[in-house]
Design goal:
By secondary structure, this protein is mainly β. The protein has one domain: Porin. Helix content is 10%, strand content 62%. The protein has 2 helices and 17 strands. Strands 1-6-7-10-11-13-14-17 form an 8-stranded antiparallel barrel. Strands 2, 3, 4, 12, 15 and 16 form a 6-stranded antiparallel beta sheet that branches. This is OmpW family protein. It comes from Imbroritus primus.
């Protein structure tokens, strides 16, 4: 091969490398795992007792409140590129356990309970730029279904002060559908391995219900509405097929 042909081949190879698709082309599936940081922006209405011994009541404990604390967990996602710019993603995580702390008159009790949150979501994303770019920002919109399990009151002083010594209380929260607003970016380290970082916001709220049985066996039902509104960051490493 002559010197000129060799030079032309080298230049052609460099041009092809410069326009190689980095795991972001139509028909590509990307499986990712990483770190979820769930940061609720929570507030609540005062605790209200709705039933004592089977009789409806309406007793509001003014000045009381609760907030949901931050939590970390492992996240998993599967994405599929329908086109070079449009993808769909199913994302879920190992359900994190959130501590619930008292606010207002309940603040001196500190952490009063905990609950486990399940929040899988489906997202549609638009990726800016072309499949040949290593760095690609995107915006996404989706829907989430959230439910809660294993709610419990862990503060004996709170239970004693609110429902009397010897009372036992369980906690549950309503499930809900919520929109998901998402922005993020990916960086293709190779044609297969991808780094990703996203930020999502969910306008999530729920009603928490406390079911108590006093030391004398009287059932008491109380409730409060909590706006959780989490901001969720997701740092991932993905592999494209």
């Amino acid at each position: 091969m002559s010197h000129h042909r060799l030079s032309a081949a080298v230049v052609g190879a460099l041009l092809m490398a410069g326009t190689a698709a980095y795991a972001q082309t139509a028909g590509t599936t990307v499986v990712s795992a990483g770190w979820f940081r769930v940061m609720p922006q929570s507030d609540s209405v005062p605790l209200r007792t709705t039933n004592i011994g089977g009789a409806p009541v309406n007793i509001v404990s003014s000045g009381t409140g609760a907030k949901v604390e931050d939590a970390d967990t492992l996240g998993l996602a599967v994405s599929y590129f329908f086109t070079d710019n449009i993808s769909g993603e199913l994302v879920a995580g190992v359900p994190p356990r959130h501590k619930v702390s008292g606010e207002g008159k309940l603040a001196p009790f500190g952490v009063i309970g905990s609950v486990r949150q399940w929040s899988p979501a489906i997202l549609a994303k638009y990726h800016f730029g072309t499949a040949q770019q290593r760095f690609r920002p995107y915006v996404g919109l989706g829907i989430n279904y959230t439910w809660f399990t294993d709610g419990k009151i862990t503060s004996t002083p709170f239970s004693n002060a609110t429902f009397g010594p010897g009372a036992t209380t369980t906690m549950k929260a309503d499930s809900s559908w919520n929109p998901v607003f998402n922005i993020g970016a990916t960086y293709a380290m190779t044609d297969r391995w991808i780094l990703g970082l996203s930020v999502s916001y969910l306008p999530l709220k729920t009603k928490a219900t406390l079911n108590t049985r006093t030391a004398t066996g009287v059932p008491v039902t109380s409730e409060t509405s909590i706006k959780i509104r989490p901001v969720v960051t997701f740092l991932t490493v993905g592999y494209a097929f």
